[in-house]
Structure formats: C-alpha cells, structure tokens
Amino acid sequence: MELPVQRQLLELLRALALGAGFGLLYDLLRPLRRRRWSAALSDGVWCLAVLTGLQAFALYAGGGRLRLFALAAMGLSGGLWLRLVSPLLRALGRLPGQARRVFGRARKRPVNFAKKL
C-alpha cells in the first residue's frame, strides 16, 4: 500500500513535534533528578510518557504503523532539542539566582562604602 506524500509530510511534522515534546518533558523533569530515588522516578515517568506517546502516534498519526522515518524524526528533533534549546532553558533557569546575587552585592555596596568611611 502506498502512502501519499502529503500524509508522509504531515506524519513527519508530527513526529518532529513529538520528539521535541519528549525533549521538553525531559527538561521539565530534570530538576527532579537530584537524588537517586527521584531520578529513578522521573526516568520512569519519562519512559512511560514516551511509550504512551509512541503508541498514540502509531495509532492515530501513523494509521496503526510506526514508520522508521517517523522514529528517526523523533530522535533527531529530541536530540536537537537537548543540544540547542535545553542549554538556553537551563541558563534562563539560572538567571533568577544570578540576579539575586548581583542585586544582593549591589545592595551591600553602599553599606560597605559607609563602613570604609
């Protein structure tokens, strides 16, 4: 059975979005990976989400089949998410703490200057 090109393209775009979603979910679960038990729990949640996502994708977007190009697209977009977008999200997550440190130092400067006088 032949698959029309438009349907292949739509399936490819959905697979790219799903792979990026898997990467986003991994990033959202990353703060929970501090301790061993919470790392195992977050990995289990991520694996169940990926399994459910793959099954739903195969049933609905793939018409009951999980095609190799869709798996490759999911892996590619998930990997690109973790390589390109994830470092930016982690840097943005560190901004509030860095801002607090900078403003804390700036707040102490007049006090330190007054002590020197």
Description:
There is one protein chain. The protein is mostly helical. It has a domain at 5-83. The protein is 85% helix and 0% strand. Helix 1 packs antiparallel against helix 2 and helix 1 (5-29) runs parallel beside helix 3 (68-116). The mean pLDDT is 85.
- Please write the string of helix (H) and strand (E) elements: HHH
Shape: elongated
Taking the alpha carbons of the first and last residues, their distance comes to 86 Å
What is the count of DSSP helices, taking H or I runs of 4+ residues?
A: 3
User: Mean pLDDT, rounded to whole units?
Assistant: 85
Taken as a percent bin, the fraction of beta residues is under 5%
CA radius of gyration: 22 Å
Q: Which stretches of 5+ consecutive residues score pLDDT under 50?
A: none
As a percent range, the share of helical residues equals over 70%
Number of strands: 0
Largest sheet: none
In terms of structural class, how would the helical and strand content be classed? mainly alpha
Brief account:
By secondary structure, the protein is an all-alpha fold. Helices cover 85% and strands 0% of the residues.
Topology record:
Elements: H1 5-29, H2 36-61, H3 68-116
Helix pairs in contact: 1-2, 1-3
What tags apply to this protein structure?
0% strand; elongated
